[in-house]
Amino acid sequence: MTDDCLFCKIAKGEIPSKKVYEDERVFAFEDINPQAPVHIIIIPKRHIGGLNSLSEGDEAVLGYIQAAAAKIASQFQELKNGYRLVNNCGADAGQTVFHIHYHLLGGRTFGWPPG
Ligand code: AMP
Ligand code: ZN
To answer: What are the residue boundaries of the structural domains of the chain, listed by start?
Structure first.
């Protein structure tokens, strides 16, 4: 937990969010500024700043998040034909919240390469 971390506060319920999934390790909620019909943020409850600040043992929760993303996606009819799971790492990639998170996006088709 980092005292002034927005996503730590959301995971603890100190800041309200529209929760879509929670278990002992992971919390998922609707993005406040959705970029697709379905746009969910998936975070580990334990604070990790980003991919560039992993500690030993953090790999497991990242794999766990991917499995959770598939579980969450299976509950949305809009995602039955596919979805995108995105991590933005660092300023050039557009990371604005430094508690690692994955965007689960779907309900429309996406271009490649991404913008
Ligand atoms: P990123 O730019 O990859 O760091 O993504 C941060 C995401 O968090 C953005 O898509 C924001 O819209 C989203 N976000 C920021 N504050 C909140 C909040 N209070 N509740 C839900 N989503 C948020
Ligand atoms: Zn945090």
So the answer is: 6-106
List ligand 1's pocket residues with C-beta within 6 A: 6, 17, 29, 31-33, 41, 88, 94-97
Per-residue pLDDT reduced to its tens digit, 44-72:
999 999 999 999 999 999 999 999 999 99
Give 29's strand partners. 19, 41
Name the residue with tokens 């009819």: 77
Regarding pTM above 0.70, the answer is yes
Across-strand partners of 40? 30, 104
Decide which of 3.30.428.10, 1.10.150.130, 3.40.50.1240, 3.40.50.300 is the CATH code for 6-106.
Answer: 3.30.428.10
